[in-house]
Amino acid sequence: MSDFLVVQNITQVFGTRKPTFAVDDVSFRIPERASIVNLVGESGSGKSTIARIILGLSKPKSGDVYYKGTSIFTRNAEWQRQFRCEVQAVFQDPYSAYNPFYKIERILNISIRKFKLVNNPSEAKARIEESLRAVDLRPDEILGKYPHQLSGGQRQRVMLARVHLIRPRLIIADEPVSMVDAGMRATVLNILMEFQAQYNISSLFITHDLSTARYLGGEIIILYQGRIVERGETIQVTSKPLHPYAQLLISSIPIPDPDKRWRETLQFAPEVKSSQSQNRERCLYAERCPHVMEVCWKERPPLQTSPGKESSWHVACHLYSGNLKGSSLES
Amino acid sequence: MTTILQIRDLSVGLTGRSSIIQVLSNVDLEVDAGEILGVVGESGCGKSTLVVAILNLLELPQIFQTGEVIFISSDGKPRNLLKLTGDTLRQFRWRQMAYIPQGSMNALNPVLRVRKQMIETLTQHGMADREADEQIRLALQMVHLNQNVLDLYSHELSGGMRQRVIIATAISMHPAILIADEPTTALDVVTQRLILQELARICRELGITIILVSHDMGVMAQTADRLAVMYAGRIVEIGTTNEVFKSSLHPYTQELIASIPNQSGEHVEGLAGEAPGPWNYPPGCRFHPRCPFVMEICRQQVPPSVEQRPSHWVSCHLFGKEESSNE
After folding, report:
1. I want to staple B230 with a disulfide (CB 3.0 to 4.6 A). Which of A188, A205, B13, B45 is the partner?
2. Is 50 exceeded by the pLDDT of residue B136?
3. Higher-confidence position of A326 and B149
């Protein structure tokens, strides 16, 4: 159990009479050395539920999450305090994450006090200023202001200043740039990647925007209805996805180039007969899949290495299991 | 190409306690019949204010300062929309110009069935019940939705379905112009692609002109025929989508395109600095504090809009009649 963060077979179900599987038997691990894992999927695919579980904000119905070998749901208070300090969240909308009645320095001071980062107030001030400068903000412009007086890009960078201040080991970033303008987006991502390398921080990066994932690199996990359908190196998976859903997802990124417009017309997903939707021991993508076979309705495809690919590249699709000729799909 | 909408010298202000702050300044824009015109820019640049002004929907503290919005109907009769009031305006909206506001898919009433909400929109704009019922069924067919959504509540629909209900409502009276403000922002890429594809098809099949507002350059590249790029309350560049992407003229447009994280994953620089808000618009060209090619004239004079290439307009002192002496 020397692994850094291990997510083991977590399942989260909401509702009892008509249960919704938000997360369905998901396992993955995040290595310690400044690595990036991108968690990608459409809304409702379970991305944020997984983030909440890893942060310890909700407990999965089954499965467990281990941080440095210990379950994060342990009741040891000292361990929990340490965990909170080492694993930090960066949220989508920093505006709703800050107390609107607190000035920025107070928000940052709370982190310093809570985690006892410094010994005296003057040192605290110096640290805050240093962290603000690290994210390209001018302390004299930011300190003394309330969150609503800052622009969206500034607010998100204050959030990053907190990361710089606390220097966690792991960042759980839930859509950190989806509310940031196009021009500022690259700035925020660049700062994140810089910290990553400089302070040896790993991150789990949750996004529905595949171009962001591609920009960050690292590893990618593609979710569909709470299950992992494909994972592997970001560059490889996004350039030659194996799973039919991953292929659809990646071909649907709006490429900012009028010469590369979508050519084929996409069909709307057909409705599923309720008898089919009840059964979860099948491929959940079967009703939308252009390559659907009989087995897809009967068996849940296991997540396994794909033939002829790196051992880190996994796909959950019957097209690639056994000796079926899945290679016809790859192009 | 016939012009369907002419916006001339449109300025909108915000009334404060003691002064008026201008948020939209001297916008000139022509929209051709049957095209998809993209309006693109960062948040706060005035995109939404522009479309709200076109629709004559401004409410205090927003006020008109100057300009006119001329709608040329199919019989060739021009009308200034800003002069319409009361019932004439009500008859005009939705019949001639429909509007999909930002986030409207989340504005469906949760305690009313879809049918009631769609029909109400039509009857409020003067259609009889029976006819309205028929029209919404046709409209649902246009967006590939099953008729049974009429009996559902909005929480029973997915995000993509809700957005299609909104689009169906908007096209149900066959407007000449459809204005869609960020119609796909909250949707995942696959649903986004479906919705954009649907909008483009409706535009072609029903001959509806679409004004599409978005901050996403990818969406624009995929969908729009022409683009108007806005910065700090002004339009800085207008041209075909191809021209704007391939040979943009304005330094802001160039930086905006260069800052998009691209396919290959190579390092890109974000735009340095922040766009000014209406309360601190700089004098002269509003982009000058961030512009790499800034000249003395940029700090003092507002650059006029010049047609640098055929149908490609730019507002920048680098371009103009006299030979520019930059760099």
Report:
1. B45
2. yes
3. B149
- Report the DSSP pairing between strands B3-15 and B20-32: antiparallel
Best residue in B263, B267, B269, B280 for a mutation probing chain A (most A CBs within 10 Å) = B263
Say if the Cβ atoms of B271 and A249 lie within 8 Å: no
The pLDDT assigned to A275 comes to 61
Predicted confidence at residue B87, as pLDDT, reads 84
Which pLDDT band, with edges at 50, 70 and 90, does A261 fall under? confident
Distance between CA B265 and CA B132 in Å, rounded?
50
Q: What's the pLDDT at B2?
A: 87
Q: Tell me the count of A-B CB pairs closer than 8 A.
A: 128
Q: Which pLDDT belongs to residue A328?
A: 46
End-to-end CA, chain A: 39
Nearest to A186 among B43, B222, B270 (CB): B270
Mean pLDDT of B125-143: 89
**CB within 8 Å: B269 and A268:** no
Q: Token digits for A209?
A: 């925007």
- Bridge pairing between strands B20-32 and A36-40: unpaired
Residue by residue, DSSP assigns B196-244 as HHHHHHHHHHHT-EEEEEES-HHHHHHH-SEEEEEETTEEEEEEEHHHH
The 3-state DSSP class for residue A320 equals helix
Q: Under 8 Å CB-to-CB from B211, ≥6 apart: which residues?
A: B31, B37, B39, B51, B54, B177, B178, B179, B180
Average pLDDT, chain A: 86
Comparing alpha-carbon positions, the chain A residue that sits nearest to B253 is: A183
Beta-bridge partners for B8: B68
Residues 107-136 on B with a CB inside 8 Å of A are none
* Sheet of strand B78-80: strand arrangement: B20-32, B3-15, B62-72, B78-80
Q: How far is A290 from B15, CA to CA, in rounded Å?
A: 56
pLDDT at residue B263 in the model: 63
- Looking at residue A219, its pLDDT comes to 94
**B211 has which bridge partners?**
B37, B179
Contacts of A186 in chain B (CB under 8 A): 259-261, 268-271
Question: What per-residue confidence (pLDDT) applies to A1?
Answer: 43
Judge: B193–A262 Cβ closer than 8 Å, yes or no.
yes
